[in-house]
Design brief:
There is one protein chain. With 410 residues, the protein is α/β, with parallel strands linked by helices. The protein contains 16 helices and 14 strands. The chain has two domains: 212 residues, Rossmann fold; 177 residues, 3-Layer(aba) Sandwich (Rossmann fold), CATH 3.40.50. It is 40% helix and 17% strand.
Length: 410
């Protein structure tokens, strides 16, 4: 592609929220000014199903799509920044053969009609359906970002093998890949999902400066959350899902002294179950499930320790955000957390699904603030320009105008 020609690029993602959504948005907005026309094609999450059924619209555009965005969706921010917005109702996170086939047909039509030069897909579901639709629509260049993989050791062998097979099918229609974290790169190459010339290591894109702790912000954050004076706070951020291990987090809290409070920012399908578990463990007074919040940068300084209990990850943005806020880290030893959390150096790593080990690591940092501060400082030194939106924008410009080619072309 010509390095000077303006390109039309569409970002396709099922859920335009969370870490993956923020990385996608940051990259899109950091593309060189004047070089791109930008669009976001997102799934039907948050759409009013009754209204959709009444008007039978499979696709919403612009203001109408923004009005139907779910809480926490980044669609309004993208729209305000000048991106075209398209919402495809059948593109839902849940596995549904009927919806998935409808999403493939509808998305193929949307991408063909949009006459895009580049389609860049994110997330597992949007990644597979989006790449197949882009190939069918005759899109010249197809790019995919792996934020991690949909298959993991906690699934049955059958489900894992099906997911790997789907990734291999979609990979044949992909010109270039970005992989968040070194372990994601390793897995992609080991399983034959990508060839070296089509694969590039990438990092979570975070505006670290926005999370830098200012004087007095710790006290302000604690007042904002109405926390008692003198308590120690261990916090986490993420959706309330099996992957993130929120029940492991609260069980670890149960093993900590009564002056340690727990904070979890994020909502999700396990919310009611977790409230019951919290009561059963006798932690109602010192465990706060905050749900979705738009003020994470203001809340983070309240944490004495950030504790990630995830069963699997790519490389979550929240680790970079916590580092920016100067918060010491405890994370599970899963891909690719070790890119940032070097055991005993920039934080502490623990075995997944082990509340006792998680509680012990948290205690070590809470009981030795000087050591915790040293680890936090080393972690901050490790986060360089590679994690900035500007760096990702340059990387995407290179990839979008690159010459690597997919194995199969229409």
């Amino acid at each position: 592609m010509s390095p000077t020609r303006k390109l039309r690029v569409a970002t396709v993602i099922t859920r335009f929220n969370g870490g993956a959504g923020q990385v996608a948005l940051n990259g899109l907005l950091a593309l060189p000014p004047g070089g791109y026309e930008r669009a976001v094609v997102t799934g039907g999450v948050g759409m009013d199903s009754v209204a959709a059924a009444q008007n039978e619209q499979d696709v919403l555009h612009g203001d109408e799509a923004v009005a139907n965005a779910a809480a926490g969706d980044l669609t309004p921010a993208a729209h305000q920044a000048g991106c075209e917005i398209v919402q495809v109702r059948p593109l839902v996170p849940q596995i549904s053969p009927r919806d998935d086939l409808a999403a493939l047909r509808t998305l193929t039509h949307v991408l063909a009609e949009g006459r895009f030069d580049v389609v860049h897909t994110h997330s597992a579901k949007g990644g597979v359906i989006g790449r197949l639709a882009a190939a069918r629509a005759g899109v010249p260049r197809i790019v995919h970002t792996w934020h991690g993989f949909p298959f993991n050791e906690f699934q049955s062998r059958l489900r894992r093998s099906v997911y790997i097979r789907l990734e291999r099918v979609a990979a044949k229609h992909t010109d270039a890949f970005l992989a968040i974290g070194s372990e994601t790169v390793t897995t992609a190459l080991r399983l034959g999902l990508a060839t070296p010339e089509r694969l590039r290591l990438s990092w979570p894109s975070v505006d670290v400066a926005a999370y830098a702790t200012a004087a007095g912000s710790r006290a302000q954050a604690r007042r904002r959350l109405e926390l008692p004076l003198g308590v120690k706070v261990v916090g986490s951020i993420g959706r309330l899902t099996f992957q993130k291990g929120p029940e492991i987090f609260v069980k670890a809290l149960a093993e900590l002294p009564d002056d340690v409070f727990g904070i979890w920012v994020g909502g999700g399908p396990m919310a009611d179950e977790l409230v019951k578990l919290t009561a059963k463990l006798g932690l109602t007074e010192r465990m706060r499930w905050l749900g979705h919040r738009d003020d994470v940068a203001e809340v983070l300084p309240a944490f004495d320790v950030m504790a990630m209990a995830s069963r699997w990850e790519g490389l979550p943005c929240v680790l970079v955000e916590a580092i920016g806020a100067g918060v010491p880290l405890v994370a599970t030893a899963v891909p690719s957390n070790q890119d940032l959390v070097l055991a005993g150096e920039t934080g502490m790593l623990v075995r997944p699904e082990d509340p006792g080990q998680l509680a012990t690591a948290i205690s070590v940092l809470l009981d030795d603030p000087a050591a915790a501060a040293r680890m936090a400082a080393r972690a901050r030194d490790r986060v360089g320009e590679w994690f900035s939106p500007a760096y990702l924008g340059e990387q995407l410009d290179d990839v979008y105008r690159g010459t690597s080619e997919r194995p199969y072309r229409k």
